[in-house]
Amino acid sequence: MAALRFRNLTLGYERHPAVHHLDGAVETGALVAVVGPNGAGKSTLFKGIVGFLKPLAGSIERDGLNAHDIAYLPQIADIDRSFPISVYDMVAMGLWRRKGLFGGIGGKDQGAIEAAIAAVGLTGFEQRTIGTLSGGQMQRMLFARLLLQDARLIVLDEPFTAIDAKTTADLLDLVRRWHGEKRTVLAALHDIDLVRATFPQSLLLAREPVAWGPTRDVLTAENLNKARRMCEAFDEQAEACAVEAA
Amino acid sequence: MLYTALIAPFADFEFMRRALIGSLALALGAPPVGVFLMLRRMSLIGDAMAHAILPGAAIGFLLAGLSLFAMAGGGLIAGFLIAFGAGLIARATLLKEDASLAAFFLISLALGVTIVSAKGNNVDLLHFLFGSVLAIDDPALMLIAGITSVSLVVLALIWRPLVLECVDPGYLRSVSRAGGPVHIAFLALVVLNLVGGFQALGTLLAVGIMMLPAVVSRFWARDITTMIGIAIGCAAISGYAGLLVSYHANLPSGPAIILVAGAFYALSVVFGPVGGLLWLALPQRHLEA
Known about the structure:
heterodimer; A: about 250 residues; Rossmann fold; 3-stranded antiparallel β-sheet; 10 helices; B: about 290 residues; mainly alpha; ABC transporter involved in vitamin B12 uptake, BtuC; about 85% helix
């Protein structure tokens, strides 16, 4: 069964496509790496999946998933790090789906919050304000919040960029745990070795899909070269797309 | 001796008691809103909105004279119109919200002063710009108290999404549609509290009781709940001390209140334990871990 199905999907900004004519499906419980050069449309695709961006053409079907079933970690989280809020409160916001605007946080929830903080190795940091965290600790905190969101589809946009090896390894364990729990996980990544080691499936994107399927078939030298060339062919003066008109 | 200096003015004169109650009510409602304005880097937006209220209040004055409800109603309408007008223009054009607010409030200020001068005299104009906290009557007290009550209740209701909208708007957007309505409710609170402060402090100083205590609180606390407590305390003390200073030194009372808050600000910049100059300059030994 497919958790996500793209039908001739085109996403973009001001009529310029950033993801062009994408067809395919993500099976429920799949662990998919989305790979491609900068500007390949990975973030754009993710924004489309979580519903922040409306398709220019085509459609995304989310099989029975509503907004609450999708957890999204943006590439550059728009977080005001000078805001006086504690790590604990920030992680607790992961309970939003169940607690909403007014729901109280009871003893059971406190246990869940502490467990999530422990799972990312931030025990002892609960009362620190978020401004005192390092980049890696920040990412750990956001993963703790993702844990509490308990979502069926988890979308991670370059979660390990500028993150050290130890933190990456710890957080990858959580990704594997989600995979084991039959959650669907999509992650945009640049580290090809990491993708080969952990992600069974890959989508190689260069504004158009280059290849999609089992990782070892997708991430060939030939495909990666092709992806790089396609991304360099961006045309500011492009004509209206012929495929769309046909 | 102390009684004469600190309590007698309020025991002897009813207008001082009213002014005190009005100031304390304002001190309860406006500073929490100011703390959020500051944390959202919208400190100057409050200033712009305060000016925006002027032409509305002036039109009320034009139509009904110095009637509290005409002026408050006019101020409310103008404040909402400009808050949403600036928001709309920011969304529809390339202009950022702060730039369009700046345009709106300058026009409003000029328009308001023109309208007041057309009908009233300079005393009226001074009342509009700087308020007359010593002339607060019962209806005005009720209005301020009502606004403070509404403000605190609404703030409690929108607390969670408002905090999240400040710290991580992208996440709020991914889990809830509350972001837009909460932003509007918050702007409405800003306008409401400025209209409340208008009677006592005028359009130019109403924003002072909102922002100065909020800025002060930043120097003394690291979490938002404590900050709001400190801001309210600072505003309340400023109101009380400002009235006393104005009574004894025969100074205009509205500006005296804001000046006391200003003195708190100056002290905080130097002595505040969270980022104050003195603490930054003091050599402190770093910790073991």
